[in-house]
Design a protein that fits this description.
By secondary structure, this protein is an alpha+beta fold. The protein has 2 domains: 99 residues, Alpha-Beta Plaits; 133 residues, CBS-domain, CATH 3.10.580.10. The chain is 31% helix and 24% strand. It contains 8 helices and 11 strands. The longest helix is centred in the N-terminal third of the chain and has 16 residues. The protein starts with a strand and ends in a 6-residue tail after the last helix. The relative contact order is 0.15.
């Protein structure tokens, strides 16, 4: 049993409201929502109230109610794209207990998004001329596994990795960090499929990698980021090891 979120959206009862409800359900379907249902109320009204003097009867002409239940992280991920459709709806949100798990196949489909939807933007980076001692200190103080190295134009020329013996040796010798960087790092582009990039990361045992656009670092993607997009707090067994958890979602790795 785990915590989920139920979002309830109440639309009106007109033809336009039916079309709006359809658009909402289509969007949630594209975003691989866990469960969605539309329930027509027997009677009532939405944001747009009926004309004065309306005769009320339980004839099925009430507003449409859309219920969406999902894990909290996926609701947060989808909400910015959904919110623009809901200006004419009354929306509530509440925590619920999920008594059954979200199907594994649905979690796999959530990896079929662009890397841009999963990465963390604006990565910290260092100049190629930075002394190795400062690079080691920065990686340790910031708790980073790696840091992109850029040239004067801001383009990626390599990656420094925490704990790399070559970087430690360069620091001890007082050399620039660039001499110890990985000059051919694995990278991802903004429009790459998250599933494909995760597969490469698992095959090459990479916990995270830089995301680039025109050779400029624009983000960082980690296995934890991918797992958050796919399964939120409902990850398969092994959540403390993102790589192990993601292998259940990427068959054949």
């Amino acid at each position: 049993m785990s915590l989920g979120v139920r979002v309830r959206m109440q639309c009106g009862a007109g033809d336009g409201d039916a079309a709006l409800a359809g658009a909402i359900v289509e969007l949630l379907d594209r975003e691989h929502a866990a469960t969605v249902c539309v329930v027509p109320a027997l009677m009532g009204f939405g944001v747009g109230r009926p004309p004065a003097g309306t005769t009320w009867s339980a004839g099925g002409s009430g507003p449409l109610i859309i219920e969406w239940v999902d894990d909290p992280d996926h609701v947060t991920h989808v909400w910015p794209r959904l919110a623009g459709l809901l200006r004419a709806c009354t929306v509530t949100r509440e925590e619920v207990e999920l008594l059954t798990p979200i199907p594994l196949e649905l979690l796999r489909r959530r990896l079929d998004v662009a890397v841009a939807d999963a990465m963390r933007p604006d990565p910290l980076h260092v100049d190629a001329a930075l002394p190795a001692t400062e690079a080691v200190r920065a990686l340790a103080l910031l708790g980073l596994a790696f840091m992109p190295v850029v040239d004067d134009a801001g383009r990626l020329v390599g990656v420094l990795r925490a704990g790399d013996p070559a970087l430690e040796a360069a620091a001890a010798a007082g050399l620039p960090a660039a001499g110890a960087m990985d000059t051919v790092p694995v990278t991802a582009t903004l429009d790459a499929r998250l599933r494909d990039v995760v597969t490469v990361m698992l095959e090459r045992h990479l916990a995270e990698l830089p995301v680039v656009h025109d050779r400029v670092p624009v983000g960082v993607l980690s296995l934890e980021d991918a797992l958050r997009v796919a399964s939120g707090e409902h990850a398969p067994a092994g959540i403390d090891d993102p790589g192990r958890a993601l292998r259940a979602l990427v068959p054949g790795v």
